[in-house]
Amino acid sequence: MDVLKHKCFLEELLFWTIKYEFPQKMVTFLLNMLPDQDYKIAFTKTFVQHYAFIMKTLKKSHESDTMSNRIVHISVQLFSNEELARQVTEECQLLDIMVTVLLYMMESCLIKSELQDEENSLHVVVNCGEALLKNNTYWPLVSDFINILSHQSVAKKFLEDHGLLVTWMNFVSFFQGMNLNKRELNEHVEFESQTYYAAFAAELEACAQPMWGLLSHCKVRETQEYTRNVVRYCLEALQDWFDAINFVDEPAPNQVTFHLPLHRYFAMFLSKAVKCQELDLDTILPDQEMLMKLMIHPLQIQASLSEIHSNMWVRNGLQIKGQAMTYVQSHFCNSMIDPDIYLLQVCASRLDPDYFISSVFERFKVVDLLTMASQHQNTVLDSEHERSMLEGALTFLVLLLSLRLHLGKTDDEILRAEMVAQLCMNDRTHSSLLDLIPENPNPKSGIIPGSLSFESVLSAVADFKAPVFEPGGSMQQGMYTPKAEVWDKEFDPVMVILRTVYRRDVQSAMDRYTAFLKQSGKFPGNPWPPYKKRTPLHPSYKGLIKLLHCKTLHIVLFTLLYKILMDHQNLSEHVLCMVLYLIELGLENSPEQESEEEESAAGQERCHDSWFPGSNLVSNMRHFINYVRVRVPETAPEVKKEPPASTSSDGLASSQCSRRKSLQRENSGTAQVFSLVAERRKKFQEIINRNTSEANQVVRPKASMKWSAPGATPQLTTAILEVKESILSLLIKLHHKLSGKQNSYYPPWLDDVDVLIHPEIPRYSHGDGMTAVERILLKAAVQSRLNKRIIEEICRKVTPPVPPKKISSAEKKTLDKEERRQKARERQQKLLAEFASRQKSFMETAMDVESPDADIAMEIATSEQHVSEAIYDCVICGQSGPSTEDRPTGLVVLLQASSVLGQCRNSTEPKKLPTTEEEQIYSRDTCAALHDVRLSTLQRYFKDSSCLQAVSIGWEGGVYVQTCGHTLHIDCHKSYMESLRNDQVLQGFSVDKGEFTCPLCRQFANSVLPCYPGNNMERSLWQSHSNKCMQDLVQEVEDLQEQLGTFPVSISSETNLSKEMESVMKDIKSTTQKKYTDYSKSPGSPDNDFLFMYSVARTNLELELVHRGGNLCSGGASTAGKRSCLNQLFHVLAMHMRLYSIDSAYNPWRKLTQPMQDKNPELISEELPEVPVLYRDVSSLLLIQILTMPQPLHKEHFTCIIKVLFTLLYTQALAALSVKCSAEDRMAWKESGALKKNTSGGEKSWEVLLGHVVSELSKGKIFEDGETEELTVVNPDSVEYYLQQFCLPFLRITSLLQHHLFGGDLPSCQEDEEFTVLASCLGLLPSFQSSDQFTSASCLNWPVPAFDMISQWCSELVSFADRHPDQVKALLIQEPKWDLPRLLQLPENYNTIFQYYHRKTCTVCTKVPKDPAVCLVCGTFVCLKGLCCKQQSYCECVLHSQNCGAGTGIFLLINASVIIIIRGHRFCLWGSVYLDAHGEEDRDLRRGKPLYICKERYKVLEQQWVSHTFDHINKRWGPHYNGL
Fold this sequence. Notes:
The protein has 1524 residues and is an alpha+beta fold. The protein is built from 60 helices and 23 strands. A hairpin with a 5-residue loop joins strand 18 and strand 19.
């Protein structure tokens, strides 16, 4: 760190640039001159010269993030150029400067390491709590270093320079053992430190990335020397580290660090040496003692992982779990767990296998558990953790022996295995797969994710599932799912276990595997993880196989099999699974067979010192073990017998037993003492003695520490167990135990000798424990004739059942408990079944969507025809009963304002979202706009009160009522609302606004619609056709209309029911904004309410029609019909409409059914005239008539009203037609009509009627102005078609109304027959004729002579034409041809939208908004959260949602590609309709992939909009507080 001496202006400039923390203008200035080559070199040298000064300034900086970015902005321009980097390296010692600066930087935050020997440790590590590490302040310097190491010439210099390597290893050792965790044994830590983030980031960035950079230059034989250098200095640094922390052979208990970068450097360079450089591994490996030390800490991490997952570290808080997860997580695993496991594999392949195996069990603290005795004491582990730790130890051994990541797999095989493992856990999207496959963390190392091999491997192992929309409303992305053959052949549970961050993912993979086997019929039950054949080992690692063939492992396996068979505690299926896996691995990888005869002869002499004769698993499997001596607590059941003179013992748990060895040498036939710990000590001692003599004193005293057991525990005594089993016999008995049958195993080769020749049988590849046992026995038999013979012998002896254990009183208690539990379980099952059947019958009646009975969902009266009243179930109190006036029942409903109908356009071509300045959308042609214009025109010329009955409103802001079909007592509902109000839980809805969720199906709702206490009888009343003549019925209807106020529920007496009906009416009114209900000129006039009420009925009928696709061809009761509440709604509306009396003089019914006698003299008065009948909307008249009649209505009166209204409708059609024809056509019709006028069917012939209309209208100034839009061809067919199309909308609405009021099905038909079918269904067609000579006029039923009526109606128009000739035609009702409501059509490519809108300026402030959005209903451009457009605390999106959709808005957020829905006071993120090529969303456009429209999703969005189901389908709603 020399003093800076400035010699030129450039140096001075740079100095002050650094001093002021790289001001942006200076950075730009300095970089702009780089194209000049001389300047570039001079500047680079100056930059290097100031490198230490940069580091000091960076450390002191408060804005280190900004400064870091600016430093890298400069350095990346300089150091990415290989030629320049090489020159500076040679001339300015760039590498030395960088390494020294890094070292110096880290030296400022070192602390004493507490690992191992806390008092005397000389090792220092970085303190992860320091700002330097916490804020990643070091990254610009590290990133420069990685950058220059990516150049081969520079990296070569580094790898050849011994001094640099020493310094670098010194730097790396600062991270060795950082962030030490100490297990909390007493109380929970007060403060959970989060330093582990900094520690993992530091190891990855400062140690691993440079390591990967260096490794990328060691790919060929010529680079062997570099590897030797790195390994040499790495080992020296490790030796220094072991000395500094005073490490001998036992790691300190209850400590773990996840950071061993030196070990990992060593491991990764070893791996490269063997894989790419053909180096002989043994030439670079250290001696045995060093290997023993090297394996301890990585093994400690594996054991600690198991402890953490067993909840033994729970008092250290969640952060310790976080560390365990990060260690195996995809971005870290190949720099952490993979090198650790590889290093352990290397150690295992070179060390004594018995030593290694016993070390593993000792580290995992389960040595004491591995005894044949049924009871034991474990001095280092609580019994509740024993099982999971044993599982952990065995699983670790399986991983160690199965993984081939560094032991012989090619890169492509590794990629494939990684991908299969990830896909087996869960279906994955393309981007998450890219993220989850461990990548080389060094960006410069040349392995690019998404490379060709990635795509080809992906298409080989997975199928693409296109993005779909699930019924539950959750959006599915495009997913990749494993192919069937991958599940069949490549599913590798070992790889899955290695790569799972969460334990539940292993279960998820197994569940998916199970589902695959069930589906493909390969295995019906619960399968075990399949055994997968491994790729062959690289010759350098052949020693790893010795682990499978060592006596220690065989004793452990034998012991565990015995314990499982005898049902000892703390064992699980997982343990058995792993035991069998290890046995199978041993059989798959057996050393060359010795000749069997010689082996059996020599067997007797050779079994002096141990349980098994040799170390080969194949022969040890058949070796019978007769007696075992065990150490047990005095209370154990085994202590009954005195030991016979000639026995031996197993004391796997104690080191004291080793003393007895000498005594038992004579008893050659029996098994011997065996102690894991003692064996390990002995082996270690031998090695140490070989190397040094002074290490003895250190090791000796530790042996006795094991058994300073506290006095409270029962004393251990020795007992003799009679075993008389071999591994083979235990396996066969296990098969019986697993199958639950005696003698279930039968050797398959007795039936079919081929099995032995081709042992790879598919039926053994998937299955449960029994399959695994069968597979192992078959492999054992294939490998040795003796084994085959012994298996047959064992099967011949009928195996006695497992000896029953003496039942102690404690066990008896547990058995009783079990029985009691069983009984309780049965009782519970019975109750549940009963409940389920009750629920089922309720569901069938309540929610039967498919049933043809399209009546209100609640009617259960179908089963009890004679009961006249409708019965309802209350979903809160569960009682059933009729709805009464005192205790009314109501339907759970959601009221919402809707402008969907108003969005219909009269063109079939959908409107496009504008994406250029030229394209604009005008709302002039929408349904809502045209209705508005019509009403205001009528109001100009006619009397207000009559105008308000000539049309319907609610095209915009109409109230739509929908129900889930469940009912409840209204008083129950009130108490339910109270309880919701007191519930402090955060709900997605506002109880104060009356919102709630249905107590049964949780559907969103905000009101209750009272059920009218009617009976079901009126439904059958109308079936008997009455024979009254038309005139009588017309009179009856008129009389009924006169009896106003006589309503079955009299209004004067306030009953509960009438109160509820009033309150629901208030709800309906307040659902929509005032501007959508007030149309009258005099505010608050009753005519307004009248109009609003029948328009609610109209809105609901029209919307149901839209949901059925705009026509009734499909017929039947659609789901919309099934859950419809129109019947109840009608009763509520009718009750309120009867409060307004219609002055009999103005009753439209009179005008329709009686010719007026006198010409009224009133017309001359000042008042505006009434609206002429021909200008009135017939559907509105229908609703007014029906809703002002006393309920329930008789079918005959309903039919009568329809017949009368149809005559008016038909006349309107003729009038509209007459205006459309040319003058010549009119003349022709007039004449031909006059000719046929007096024929018999004159009143039912359109020609005659049209002629009459033309002649009547000719009296005024109606046909005068010449501009008529002419019908193209005026032939009889086209006229007939025109008339039918004109009348159809009315027929559809009427049929729906009849269907809801009187039940009965809607007939289905072809589109061209719709008119005739509906007409006959409504009773307009007396007898159904064949369709060829059918005319629409045959449906007419005139109550009085047709020509008189028509003349009267036309005369009104004539008198109007005299005053306002320009308006006559405009007001004639035209043929309504509305297309279904649609959202705007979006372009194929998202870029089209993005380019136009993200630069578009706001109309208010002319700035580009921060969050632009566009309305998908009308195409308006809005600012999301924009303050510029705020009006009275409402932001623009919320305002627009009220103006455009009466509270419902659908907006596309331009900068995020997602759609948000605003519904009233809530909003939700709906998802995106634009997906990339792999079917994934790109929210916030983070990945920057090209996006394309997903038509299916857009259709779903449109469907939810039209059907008003946003509230039910989308779950995540939140309040927007008008801020969007």
